[in-house]
Amino acid sequence: MNYSTAIATCFFLLLAAPMARGAAFTYESDAELTASLDADGDGEWDVIVVDKSSGVRQLGIRQADGGFRWQDPASVGFEGITSLSVGHFDTNSPAEGFAIASPEANRAASFTTPTSASVLVPSFGIGPNAVVAFDFAGDVADDLIVATQWDDPPDATRFAGFQWAPSEWQSASSAAVLAGPLVQANRARFKTDRAWMLAALRPAVTSSEFLTEPYFKGPGFIAGPTLLGLAANTRWAWGEFKTSGFSTFLFYEPGKSTLRAPSISEPFPSTFAWGPGATYDLGSPISQISVLPTTTGALLLAIFNDGAAARTYDFDGVSKPVQRQVFTAPSSTRFSLAGGLRRGDFILLNGASGGQGRSTGYQRWNNKGATHTLAGSGALPAITTASGRANVLLYDGDPLASDAAVFLRAAKAGEWSVQASFTAGALDVKQQHTVTSVIGLGNSSNIHLSLPALSSFGVVPLVNQRSGGESVSILSPASDDIFRQVSFAPTPGTYAASVDLPLVIHIRAQPAAPLYYRTGPASPWLLYDADAPPRIIATTEFTAFAQSNPPSAIQRARYQIAALPGVGPVSPVDANNNGLSDDYEKALGIQDPNGDPDGDGFTNLQEYQAGTDPQDPKSVPSNTSTPVVLIARSPGASAPAETLCEIAWPSNVPGLILEFAVDLIPPVSWTAVTASISTVGLERIYYNPDTAGSPQRFFRLRKGP
Fold first, then answer.
1. Cis omega before residue 181 (within 30°)?
2. Whether residue 541 has pLDDT greater than 80
3. Which candidate, 650, 633, 644, places its Cα nearest to that of 568?
4. Alpha-carbon distance 396 to 682, whole Å?
């Protein structure tokens, strides 16, 4: 199917599946994603918060006193997370897990429990950016719908269903396509006794659409009703407020005070239609709308004024919301996100930048009938640089003893891993955490890592602390492919290029794999040919990935094509104002402008002004000296191939010798250039080759005897 790209769409996948508990809606800010889940299987709702940029998740386990015990921040394995969905994947345990998608990492993955190892979703498109978990196969365990955003245009979005069976994801449908992309994807349903569906917005430049998409096992997807005419920056939520059984979908624009609730009808069984519904003015600029499920329906929670305050409302899905209670953000913070818990309880996250930044604290509010009471509050564990990095690498041999050792997997244990060993097929790691910035790392503790589908036989773990005096720091997330890389040559930057001399772009994969690239979102993906690499003469941004199993992360490189400016002399600095530049004094070890160290009758100042060497009696100013300017510039059209730059000076001054040095550390060793120097018009030009043999060269002109 193909939807118009002129407007953004809200989209649904309908499935006949029972509701295991309250719909696990994912709320998001510019910086984070959050959802409630039963992480430990005790029947209470815990909280997960994922930092989009770093891919580090925070997990809060509900305690009997109403607060949360926050686990160590841990990387989900990828950065640039755009979607989070909670699901029940392990039928042998009541605990729930979650799934994430990262288009930049080119991956979607699930975690059976929040602390288990990740399981990748098979690749079926490029740039997975949306993932939604629910049981469309009717086998109790939740399945996944995954959508991509960077496939070949014009239908750049693909989405497909995957079934959990029971330790890996298997394709359950053929991929459908649309113009996409899909954002804010969640599961929802139009009526309490009807099918679940994927619901998502499809934004465009000026407007959005809300799409619904029924799913049927086997043949694929059939489009559901689409809601048109939404603003491009629309956000949404939904809840089951009414006794009629119909759900209420809520749409709003951040920064505006109005809340839209279109009506829903069912003209035929399981066939739904949108109606005009109602619009409510809440009186203040809305930042976020959340739904708080209760035992009899749901309440409404709104964050206002960029997180300065929040309010709860009684709402039946039809009448205007009636305010219950006002909440003010803690001092020096703003509310960043909110999420519903059981029985109308909720959590309010806060931070210095509100929804624009990372949350650093929380408040838990419990529903006591007409009001909510504060049940717990505190700080979230700090996310440090180490939080997002792997610190246990597993090989099939010792990587520091043998180059043949093959990398198997990366894992994460605390902030610093000290020791690791296998016990009964699982990995026991001794870990440490930072106490304070002054104290540093504290005492070590043990953590038990379950690593499914990995035999411990012959596996060697590499940890941070190799020995008392040797350590290793790992700079990549805890992903299974941290050594799979795509690189570009030359280094992205600004270059000169022309039809006669285009810039050649080389792309490499390590380890070797087929490479695909393109030069813009409107361009198709092309298979890279090392024997015929792309050549450009205009500014171009490349996007590339390696088609391995699994595929590599997306890599980008921008090449700016422009005429490079000529490089002229920098105005000298003369701190002591004696007429000699500071660099000149430092390079030659002289400071007296009236001195004459070579005894040729000319002062240091006279030789400085004439450009001669004050320490060489054969280098003297001429009575007929002509001002000379030595310049370095980018190669011209007549320059030989492999020319790095041109060194030029006037040709009407005879007897000049071009000299170079590889550094300016006294005593400077100047060497005459012996390669061919050309006369072109009124200039003498030396074509400095790219293969000059040193990372830097300094040039000067000296008047010969």
1. yes
2. yes
3. 633
4. 67
What does the block give as tokens for 330? Answer: 């803690």
Residue 334 burial (CB count, 10 A): 21
Which tokens hold the place of 640?
A: 């030989």
User: Residue 500, class by beta-carbon neighbours within 10 Å (0-12 exposed, 13-18 middle, 19+ buried)?
Assistant: exposed
Give pLDDT tens digits for 82-96: 999 999 998 888 999
One-letter amino acid at 26 equals: T
Distance CA 282, CA 224 (A): 30
DSSP 8-state class, residue 344: G
78 in Cβ contact with 100 (< 8 Å): yes
> How far, in Å, CA of 72 to CA of 414, rounded?
7
| Position 187 pLDDT exceeds 50 | yes
Amino acid sitting at position 193: D
Q: Which residue has the tokens 């890592």?
A: 449
Rounded Cα–Cα distance for residues 73 and 520 (Å): 36
The whole-model pTM stands at 0.74
Mean pLDDT of the chain: 85
Which residue is associated with the tokens 């099918």? 195
Confidence of residue 5 (pLDDT cuts 50, 70, 90): very low
Spatial separation of the C-alpha atoms in residues 137 and 529, rounded to whole Å: 42
**412: phi then psi, degrees, rounded to nearest 5:** -135, 130
Tell me the C-alpha distance between 444 and 429, whole Å: 10
For 135, the token pair is 């049981």
Helix and strand tally (H, E) in the chain?
A: 2, 62
Q: What is the largest CA-CA distance in the chain?
A: 108
Alpha helices (runs of H) in 476-598, residue ranges in sequence order: 582-588
Q: Give the residue from 292, 376, 288 showing the smallest Cα distance to 70.
A: 376
Is 541 within 8 Å of 505 (Cβ atoms)? Answer: no
How open is the CA angle 116-104-531, to the nearest 5 degrees? 120
What does the angle CA 615 – CA 616 – CA 617 come to, to the nearest 5 degrees?
115
C-beta separation of 20 from 240 below 8 A: no
Beta-carbon neighbour count of residue 678 at 10 Å?
15
Residue 157: HSE in the Cβ half-sphere, 13 Å Cα cutoff: 25
Distance from CA of residue 247 to its chain's centroid? Answer: 35
DSSP 234: -
The token pair at 622 is 């001429």
- Both tokens of residue 468? 């008392």
Instruction: State the CB neighbour count (10 A cutoff) for residue 426.
Output: 13
Taking only the tens place, the pLDDT of each residue in 640-687 is 888 888 898 888 788 889 999 888 877 888 899 988 899 888 788 999
Q: Which two tokens stand for residue 86?
A: 């909670």
